Every structure is written in structure tokens, then in C-alpha cells.
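Example (one chain per record):
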Amino acid sequence: MGSLFSLMAGYPNPSAVHFPTTSAFPKRRVNGDRQSTLSLEEFVRMRCPSVLSEFKPAWWLWNGDMQTLYSVLGNFTKVDTVTYARTHLRLKDGGTIGLDFTPVEQESIREDAPIIVVLHGLTGGSYEAYVRGVLYPACKPVEQGGLGYRAVVVNYRGCAGVPLTSPQLYSAGHTDDIRQALMYIAHTYPKAPLVGVGFSLGANVLIRYLGEEGTSSRLLTGCALACPWNLSKNSNALSSTFIGRHVYSRGMGSNLLNLLKKHIPALTGDPSSPTAVAVTKALQLRRPTLQEFDGAITRLLGGSSPPFPFETAEDYYAWGASDKIIGDVKVPLLTVNAGDDPVVQEVPMLAGGNSSTVVVVTPHGGHLGWFESTSFNDVTRWITRPVLEWLRAAVEDLDMRTDPAQLYVDDNGFLCQRDREDLGCKVTHEFKGKVIQGANVKTSGVLQGL
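Predicted structure:
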């Protein structure tokens, strides 16, 4: 990816940045004044200077492997502490997703405060330090130096303590679960602008959702961090090196297998069913690579039918890639990858010609790392600043409007969307009076940071 940095000639920092040449978003009206337009490059230069600032990795985390491994092995339990109130949503297909809301006490927050909707990584959840690193400052009260926003983390089926109530899992390409989560959030907070942040697998889901929805998106802007983009190319690149295959790929595959083991009863109730047969076979794997797990399970159970099941993992990768749909995104989008990311090595720098997207590749940062020094031994995540600047500026400066489908409640109590009668959700459990500690709901046996 070193050739990408040549695109930044003339900039004072070594990150590669691609601005669309034909982007123009209306500025928000002030006192009824006539609107003008603002290019994304002007927007970034004026309101998001951290996007163009130099990221300097902590001296002892000098390369992508060190950054990535620290994200996985570091102790973040006392950093950026966030508490959540959880709501379980039952979906029409029988599945369950978990929405973690923060702050828990929301009465003092204005009803039109922006809401950050977060999609976590491969086997993570709201407990992840990279999630809390963004939400802690975003959801602090303004008088304490925060943005005063709300946030909702969408925990995928079976992740972070969410029960598995159907034989379907999740994947990098399946977007209906986030679509239904957004239906509920928009219905619950009708006056609040919704903005999205996705990490790794969640970034891929975010981009696919934005591309599929176009001008009907319920999210008015988004940030996609460490997106895997072309799943096939990045899977092959990951498997092409010893450390890629035997450390990262097997680490992610083992994470998925350990997560699967926690839901065996839900998946094998009928031992003769195709799902139970596939799960039983997958449980015989020992430290599978990511591709081996995807070939055994994700291609079969990673989404609704159609298009699932797929014949091979490669077929699933070809379908689930986000690089082929980035050109259809119609809302302003910031994507950030690291040039030394050992997990993601292929980035569509020109964003498929999309006029709504800014693509940034920092020279360092690893996979979901971006750790910089604050003192000799202490570190913080650089990525938090550009994300918060982008979200705040987009809400305050840009007159962003979309036209999402209307919602209604059907006779069975499901919240539904007019153009997708197959979708629907309703609350099955709210943990009222209970607080989920953001650092303490980690799924045992599953490595953090991925």
C-alpha cells in the first residue's frame, strides 16, 4: 500500500487521503439564510483537521503487528468506562439482537440530540475498548467537555451475551439486522439525527447498508474504520504470510468457533437438520483459520435465505464485499484504514468514484489500533479525534436529508417498514434498573480487539 502515499503530495502529513472531485453538500441554514454548498475537502479542512493530522504511533508500538496485538492483549478495563442499558429486539425471523444504550440516565439529554449507532467488529460487542474509546467522550455532558450525544451499540446475534434464538448467525454482508435496529431507534427517537460508526466487520456492514439504502438511509452520515472491503482479496492476503495465517486468521477463526460453542443448543435442537449437521462438523475443527470457519459455518448461516446458503466461502466473500457497493453511498462517509494493517491490505483508495466519500489511509495504526503516546507509558487512540470531529461537523454544518421508508406497527406488535414487509422487530426484554458495565460483558474465550 506504500504507493498510496504518493497521492498526498503537498500535504504536511504522510497519510494518504482521497477527496472526491465532484462533491458538494448543502450547508445547514442559519437564521433562514440562503444555502450554499460545501465540498468535502473544504468541509474536512475547516472542521475536521484531525483527519489531516499526522498520526504518530506510540514509540513501543512501532508497527502494525504491535498495534494490533496491543489492541488484542492490552488491559483496557479501567479506560473509557461506559455503562449501558440493554434492550433485546426479537426479529420477525425469530432472531434476537441486543441494543446497548448509553448514557443510562437519559432524561437530561435533549430529544433531538444526535445518536451514534455503533457496529462492532467480528466477535465483539459494546464492551470493546475501541467502541468505548469513541463513546466515552461523545456521550459525556457538554459541560464536562463531551458532545452530549446518545449512543446505541448493536450487538449481533449471539455476541456479548445476546441469546441466539434462531439458527441464523451474522456476517460481514448481512444488513437486515442493522436495518431493523435502525427502525427501532428512529421510532423511539424520532427527532434525533442518526449517525453511524462501524469497526472492521461492522464497517463492512455499515458501508453495505449505506450503499443499499442510498437516499433512503436512516443514517445521515457514517465513519467506517478498518473496513475489510474486498473480502476475498484480503482473505487471500491474510493467508499468504505465516503470521497472517497462523496468528491473525487462526485467532479470528478460533474466536468464531468459541462463540459458536456457546450456542450449541440453539443450533442443534434437531440433530438431523442441515444446520445441526454443519455445526457438529464445524465443532471438530481445531484452531480453524477465518476462511475455514467461513467455509464451514458463515457461508451457510451468515444471513437470511436468499442469498444464503452459499456454495463456498469464496462465493460468500464475493457477495459480501463492500468495495463493489461503495459507489452507491449517498450520504457523507469517512473511511479510515491503516497502511500497516496486517488484517486488511487492500483498500479501494478512489472509493469507486463515489462523490460522498473521503478515504484516509494512515501509514501506521495496525488493525483497530491507532495507539499514540500521551506520556511515557500511557496511550490513547488517535482515531477518536477524527471520528468525533467528523460526526459533530456533519450534524452541525451539513444540511443532510434522506427519505427513509415509513414505519408502522402490525397486528402482532412488530414495528415494520412499508417497503420491506418481511422485516419487523419488537422489544422482548428491557433490563430496566440494571446496568451493563462496558468493560465487563466480554464473552469468555473470545479475544478482544478483533
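Caption: The first strand starts at residue 16 and ends at 18.
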